[in-house]
Design brief:
This protein is mainly α. 50% of the residues lie in helices and 10% in strands. The longest helix is centred in the C-terminal third of the chain and has 16 residues. The protein contains six helices and two strands. It has a two-stranded parallel ribbon.
Length: 101
């Protein structure tokens, strides 16, 4: 991917990643159907990282995809599509929760 965007853009993306802040507090305010998808073989963001995200979002579920790493849409597109369909279907049958103050 770095080759596709070029060296300048790749460096800018890496610099932006280095300045990200922890958004765990914001995740706790989410009030929408949520599924956290993760590759069981993701070494960049291991499953424990995704578990912490799922635990931060009220009512979120964690789906670990075996034999997948960090690039789920490319590695397991059918599983990603199925998980997204499931959360969208659930959302159409759920009464929205009150927004957090």
């Amino acid at each position: 991917m770095a080759h596709a965007v070029g060296a300048t853009a790749a460096r800018a993306q890496l610099a932006a990643q280095a300045t990200r802040t922890d958004a765990t507090g914001v995740l706790r305010t989410a009030r929408c159907p949520t599924v956290v998808l993760a590759g069981a073989r993701d070494t960049l963001c291991p499953p424990a990282f995704h578990q912490a995200i799922a635990e931060s979002v009220p009512g979120a579920g964690l789906t670990l995809l075996p034999d997948a790493g960090h690039l789920l849409p490319w590695q397991r597109p059918e599983a990603v599509t199925a998980a997204l369909r499931e959360v969208v279907t659930a959302a159409t049958h759920t009464t929205p929760a009150a927004a957090a103050p």
